[in-house]
Amino acid sequence: MISPLAHVDPTAKLGENVTVHPFAYIDKDVVIGDGCEIMPYASILHGTRMGKNNRVFQGAVVGADPQDFRWKGNEAVCTIGDDNTIREHVIINRGFESPEGTVIGNQNFILANSHVGHDCRIEGRTVLGNGVTMAGNVKVGTNVILSSNTIFHEDSKVGDWVLVKGGCRIAGNVPPFIIVAHNPAAYFGVNAYVMRKRGYNDEQIDEIAKAYRHVYQSGTSVFNALKRIEADVEPSADRDAITDFIRAANLQIVAVPIELE
Questions:
Q1: CA–CA gap between residue 148 and residue 163 (Å, rounded)
Q2: Residue 71 class from Cβ within 10 Å (0-12 exposed, 13-18 middle, 19+ buried)?
Q3: What is the pLDDT of residues 44-53, one digit of tens each?
Q4: Nearest Cα to Cα of residue 19 among 51, 62, 105, 33
Q5: What is the pLDDT of residues 180-229, one digit of tens each?
Q6: β-strands 109-110, 157-158: how paired?
Q7: Long-range contacts made by residues 7-15, C-beta under 8 angstroms, separation at least 24?
Q8: Which of 8, 48, 67, 134 has the fewest beta carbons closer than 10 A?
């Protein structure tokens, strides 16, 4: 399952049923789990820990050195979970600011020419469209869609169930369950279509939409919007996810409010 035309360092640890195609490069200090497939000209560099059943396509570089002047060659790590698809010419940098480094969870699709910077964290079941670019320390929740050519500045955070439309520039915190589009990023409602497909019912979606009317359509401050949500929206895990995210972000969230008539 390992081509003699591939380079596999003798110290690399490969699980069962791993396929390494011709001209792939597997560096020292690499762990690749069972059932993974590494395509021609893909590189898995030192410090990478990869789980099971991942596919890495042509020209991708997983575990590249951090692109940060603060990195001085100290230990840096890249952890990839299970069942991920990493398409052509993706670059994923190792992380050096935390012990876990850069973390890609499970069941993500990272499409061609995307870049994931140092110490980013993508929780799981997320799609990065073609050409998505992330600076360092970007955190992305679960069930997120980041459309093609979106740009995320350092330390940005994206909540669960978010849809960011193509070409957006995000420099801040995107709360869960919403759609953002344009530049500057604007709120375009709740991500209802995707959420319904994944099991949310109309009542849950309506309650989430009610919460965001207070945030984006009431003409009040974010501080007052949180008070109104807690008074007006029935308690639930979804309501708590919204208020907890906004408070953790110190009330600093992206997406300018829709102008009221």
A1: 11
A2: middle
A3: 999 999 999 9
A4: 33
A5: 999 999 999 999 999 999 999 999 999 999 999 999 998 899 999 999 99
A6: unpaired
A7: 15/52
A8: 67
